[in-house]
Amino acid sequence: MLVGLLSGPSHADSEWAGSETCHSCHRDQYSSWHRTYHRTMTQEASPEAVQGRFDGQPIRAWGMEVRPVRRGDRYWFEYFRPGDTAPVARYRVERLVGSNRYQQYLTREENGGTYYRLHLLWHNEEERWVHMNAAFLGPDDQHFDSNVSVWNHNCIFCHNTGPQPGVVNYDEMLARASAGQAVDSASEARYESSVAELGIACEACHGPAQDHVDKQSNWLTRLAHTLSGRSDGTVVTPDHLEQDRANQVCGQCHGQRLPVDGEMLRRFIDEGPVYRAGDDLFESVELVWPETPNPMTGHADDLFGLRFWPDRTPRLSAYEYQGLTLSKCHEESELTCMSCHDMHGGDRHGMISEQARAGAPCLACHQELAEDIEAHTHHPVDGEGSNCYSCHMPEVVYGVMEIHRSHRIEVPAPAEQAAAGRPNACNLCHLDQSVAWAEAETARLWERDALPVERADGADPRLPDGVARLLAGDPVERAVTATAIGRAVDRGQLEHAEDWQPYLVGAMRDDYPAVRRFARRSLEQTAEAVPASREAIAAFARRYDFIGAPEARELALADLMLRYSTLAAPDSDSAIYLPPERIEALRRIGLERSEAINIGE
What we know:
The structure is a single chain. By secondary structure, the chain is of the alpha+beta class. Among the domains are: 1-39 and 200-235, no CATH class; 42-188, no CATH class; 423-601, no CATH class. Helix content is 37%, strand content 12%. Strands 1, 6, 7, 8, 9 and 10 form a six-stranded antiparallel β-sheet that branches. The chain is globular and about 80 Å long.
């Protein structure tokens, strides 16, 4: 009798049931999921969900003024041209995307189902509005509308459960394209979309569950499964899957991908992704890599290429799966995403337990190192240099206005990584040292031959790496380095924090708003370590707006240097001092390497 009760159809044939149906039987799992940011990834606009301050105060950026206003339980963005008293446009906020680091706002076209991302986001840590142009890695010379985008075209796929884009004018666009007309599907497609559930819910990871709900509604069936301890086969438990299938559950969103062919693309834009948890993800998609052709042109170009370091290591978030697949730990062990992350436990910021944050997943395999960590790391056991992740998963990834750890698990190799045009883990802490020093030290400490050192940017490999990358790096390098300076100060790793202040002031003149923001934050962090500058920098921080008008930013910087004169030029006795002509030469390299990086968000 039990055999009959335990048989059932594949989960892939089931329909969506919704997370509320899970609550009655799986209360603990439901509650632990309910507290996550996955659940609130997409929400309808309501007083309970809106995080931004809709108080009518004007936000000025990129030549326009936006006023977020609330009327009753409804929220609006009103748009004004400079000097006008009446708005030129007014858009009602219908939906929200995100709730952790920042929240984006969507409006819907009148009499249609197409949702558009609006111009401002609310940043939770800084408690302020930020124009979308400054959230990504683009320069100042963007149009006011540069990052207005169609939610149904892209965001719907990963930020919801059971998405169906439902393009209603596909045949019309195809006919125009066949006739030789230029068609931009990203802006011209019109949608009547649906989702099984807004946000990332239970069934995104466990598969459609209606068959499971139906089967388990019978008390005798529930009793049989309780007594046997066996699954009924209608839903998936990711950490019970074999390694590749388990990682694919996360990789369906945390690994940027494209449909495998035109036929699958047509299915995606109509009925959504065909993958369900437990399936083979690569039957329907292929991962994006630097060499992946641009779907619009058919050639590999900067669209995807700039999302990776030159050695193919991802440098943007949402490529974690690609990083994992490049790792020997993935190739040579049973490592999965769930080795570190727990979707029903740990800190909701990353779903990582304290044990996992301390490197327990690494030491589970490398048990011999746990016996004497300092002998392996050559750093104090309680310091950053003995943190497995800092050396083997360095913070070189940009996303959601922050710098994150790489998910490519690797051995620090300063010379190789300098030649590949990317930061190395050693110099992200030892910012005042050169790549040549880092290569010599790693060779000495780990008893290997030192390699010749050449930097891909052409800069002298004997220069302090933090200075060289902040000045001569491309936008990601500059953002990573500006952030690393502040984090190193906080950890007490930079003995003379004041030496970095002039360079950070210079970075606040960068033509990329994201870089200016990181530099300002790190300058404030140095102020905590340099009491003499604390008052001047605190006053400056209140005046300097990284997306403000250029004239206002320059006035704030001039006032800062007037208040605290040592910011005007680096101290010639400093270990990181460079003469003005060398600084200018590095800045010219940085200008040549500045290129807008399409993040794809």
